[in-house]
Amino acid sequence: MVKKGTDLMRIYVDTSVLVAAHTREPHTDIAQTWLTTHGGNLIFSKWALVECDSALAIKVRRGEMDIVGQAAAVADITAFTNYHPAAPGSTGLQAGEG
């Protein structure tokens, strides 16, 4: 039996949403609003942090951001994900987890 008021569903957040919410992109506002709206039900894979690091490094190589912006985005994403639980079975560097 599920107690009234308990969460029935958690929402896994994709890397693209995290990166868009913490960098300047065309969909930054949408990503930030979505994360705020669903904040209480979010879960993250530890793998997502590695994927975010990779995506941010690509942005630096493309000239879309500098290394100062990259470091700030990494810190912001890490802090944000620390406020939410890890996905069940999320053990780190394993492809295909989630």
Structure description:
- The chain is mainly α and 98 residues long.
- It has one domain.
- 51% of the residues lie in helices and 4% in strands.
- It is built from four helices and two strands; from the N terminus they run βααβαα.
- It has a two-stranded parallel ribbon.
- Helix 1 packs across helix 2 and helix 1 crosses helix 3.
- It is globular, with a radius of gyration of 14 Å.
- The C terminus is likely disordered.
The helix content is 40-55%
Mean pLDDT: 83
Shape: globular
Largest sheet: 2 strands, parallel
Low-confidence stretches: 92-98
Q: How would you classify the helix and strand content by structural class?
A: mainly alpha
User: How many domain modules?
Assistant: 1
Helical segment count: 4
- The fraction of residues assigned to DSSP E strands is under 5%
Rg result: 14 Å
Please specify the SSE layout and strand pairing.
Elements: E1 11-12, H1 15-21, H2 28-38, E2 42-43, H3 46-61, H4 67-82
Parallel strand pairs: 1-2
Helix pairs in contact: 1-2, 1-3, 3-4
